[in-house]
Amino acid sequence: MNILLTGGLGYIGSHTAIVLAQAGHRLVLFDNLSNSSHAMPGKLESITGKPFVFVSGDVRDTELLHQTLRAYSIEAVIHFAGLKVVGESLTIPLEYYANNVQGTISLLQAMREAGARMLVFSSSANVYGEPRYLPVDEVHPTGGVTNPYGRSKLHVEEILADLSRSDPDWRIVCLRYFNPVGAHESGLIGDDPGGFPNNLMPYIARVAAGQLKELQVFGNDYPTPDGTGVRDFIHVMDLAEGHACAVDYLSGNTGWQAINLGTGQGYSVLEMIRAFEVASGRPVAYRIAPRRPGDSASCYANPDKAKTLLNWSARRSLAEMCVSTWKFQHGMRTAAAI
Ligand code: NAD
Ligand code: UFG
User: Fold this and answer.
1) Is the pLDDT of residue 334 over 70?
2) Is 83:151 a contact under the CB 8 Å cutoff?
């Protein structure tokens, strides 16, 4: 199939590009490089041995999207492009709504014009707000979201559901990611947040590498087994495979679906630290700090719907998540030293 990946040079998009290319799909990567690098297509080519078409552009540029969809006879789009930092969204909400909501509307208009009506959307477990029960399944109420980032994802999900109701030709899956971590086994690509990492795993990796002094553990008084926050960490390659399964699903089904991509297993912050120490052979210094506003005690998925509809489930272990992150971190450090 001919597939366009908006945000295809980013963390999850690039890993998904590998899986899709290896499955024989022809890909166009569309990205404005706001959080990615020109070097990515070359890295993807060296990993897969296949060429990648890259189009530099912003998803708010409806005309460029339209031309791209037509020029490459695109049949399906996976929409990764957007801004993703929860804390930042509180300080620049307009940028979040412009990129994430306006950007999606622009994409949908271009797809409608070009006659491409198959879409996989990068949503987030954030749409559930504070979990009312665990594990979180897809009938868990959405809403109660406390930040513009999460609200932008929820708005887009609702827009997509309305679109599907208005025109049954649309085929739409919203994938609600839990906590993506890890890297491709090559160590060539991974999660490389610019500046100060906001998420746990890249922060731990930089402490282990000696680039940051210590991790702050945000709270040890949660009602969890060791008092620290519990999350459903999922290997990015498992997540990538989930997208390939979603595209296969859409080939045979119309309508709108929201589907969790998680493992169903929660790990605490302290368990993550210990697992990373084992994987890297390095100590991870930490200190207990106050809770981070807006954080839940625990959040993990019920992944049954993905198994039933997509025939997908996560396969990779916590150790593989940590080892691949360390390999990527180590490679970046070595490259920086040369
Ligand atoms: P990322 O920042 O690594 O990738 C996003 C890519 O989109 C980047 O390459 C960036 O340059 C590009 N981009 C941003 N705005 C754009 C625009 N207006 N036009 C064109 N390109 C644009 O992020 P990621 O971790 O790969 O996340 C991908 C998607 O998954 C995002 O929509 C994010 O909200 C969602 N998501 C991520 C996580 C996570 O923890 N990483 C969790 C849940 C959901
Ligand atoms: N944590 C720390 N110290 C840190 C960073 C995080 O203790 O320096 C803790 C948090 O308090 C939380 C856990 O590690 O208990 C995970 O935090 P992350 O920031 O890595 O991830 P979140 O669960 O807060 O959010 C992530 C993404 C969101 C996404 C959500 C669900 O950042 O975009 O997962 O998919 F919506």
Assistant:
1) no
2) no
Q: 153 near 100, Cβ under 8 Å?
A: yes
Question: What's the predicted TM-score (pTM) here?
Answer: 0.98
Query: Which among 81, 85, 94 has a CA at the least distance from the CA of 149?
Result: 85
Residue 19: both structure tokens together: 């899986």
Most distant pair of Cα atoms in the chain: their distance: 56
CA-CA distances (angstroms) from residue 85 to 126, 229, 250?
Answer: 12, 18, 29
| 321: its two tokens | 């998540």
For residue 181, the ligand closest to its alpha carbon is: 1
Task: For ligand 1, say whether the CB of 198 is within 6 Å of any of its atoms.
Answer: no
Q: How confident is the model at residue 117 (pLDDT cuts 50, 70, 90)?
A: very high
Closest among 169, 181, 292, 281 to 229, alpha carbons compared:
292
Q: Are strands 286-289 and 215-218 parallel, antiparallel or unpaired?
A: parallel
Q: Is the shortest distance between the CB of 32 and ligand 1 below 6 Å?
A: yes
| pLDDT of 332 higher than 90 | no
Its sign, for the CA torsion 262, 266, 269, 271, is negative
**Cα(283) to centroid(ligand 1), Å:** 31
- Hey, how many other C-beta atoms are within 10 angstroms of the C-beta on 137? 14
Ligand positioned closest to the Cα atom of 128: 2
